[in-house]
Fold this sequence. Notes:
434 Repressor (Amino-terminal Domain)
Amino acid sequence: MTVERFQERLRDLLKQHDDMTQYQLAKMAGVSSATVSKWLTSLKTLPTYPKLKKIAGAFGMTVSELMEEKHVDYTVDGLPQGAEILIENYRKMDRQQRIRFMKMSEVMAHEYPAG
Length: 115
């Protein structure tokens, strides 16, 4: 992915998550607001992998999903009723809430395996 495409992708993600500010993204990625601003405007090289991982996590995705050229729009087709609400609520969680949720999901998957 080019630097320009990364900047475009990051701007698009912030627009899609209109409840997330540059400041909040900075906190979740462990950088300053100035760094996020630089990512959006005057970036010369891509962020390091650890930073990309934190950026991706802030948006509830993997680094691969963040860096893919073509964004995949996931749907809830075939998922149980209410999955759409669960996904929407997940997108609104902060980093710590997402970590707790994922740990809880792992425990539930172990305790209640799919039949």
